[in-house]
Each structure stands twice: as C-alpha cells, then as structure tokens.
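Subject: sequence -> structure tokens, single chain

Hey, anyone have a minute? Need the predicted structure for the following. Not urgent.
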Amino acid sequence: MGKKSFILGGIVGFILGTRAGREQYEKMKSSAQNLWEMDAVQQGVAKVEDTVGGVARNSASNLTDKVAGMVKEKIHSTGRPKADDSMAGHVSGGEEAMDPATPGPRN
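Reply:
Had a minute. Here:
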C-alpha cells in the first residue's frame, strides 16, 4: 500500500502544482509584457539599438578598410617579376620570351 500511496500522492501533487504553476506563469508573463510596453523601457531599447547599430557599422567599416589595406599590400609586395628573377625571360608554357636585347634563336 505504501508504494501505491506514494505514486498517487505524486500524481495529485503534480496536477495541483501544474495548475498553480500555470497561474503563476500567466501572472509573470502579464507583468513582463506590461513592463516591456512601458515608454521608458521602449526608449531605453531604442537607445541601445542605435548604439549597437553604430558600433557594428563602425566595426564593419574598420574591418573592411583593414582587409582592403592588407590585400593592396599583398598585391604590391608580390607585384610583377623583376629582370633578375629566376623566371625572367620565360613565359608560361615553357617558351622563351622574345627579349629585344638578346639575339633570336640560331638555326
């Protein structure tokens, strides 16, 4: 009988607790909704949104500038090969470039 009474008590307690819990939940939900709709709260939310939006825009702009600078630096640092480079006088495909300073191929 002890086990059945314990289970029955648990079920009754759960049902009563759920009903009381739902009422408390509804009260808290209503209070939170009323608080959220207050003008002072909405003004504060708008101010925070503006501040966060401004910070995000500035951060994005700074990041874009930084990346653009890094790309430009990379492009300029690699640049075109110089005459003393190991690839000087060669064109892709393995053919020799026609340099006017050097004589043509001998046959």
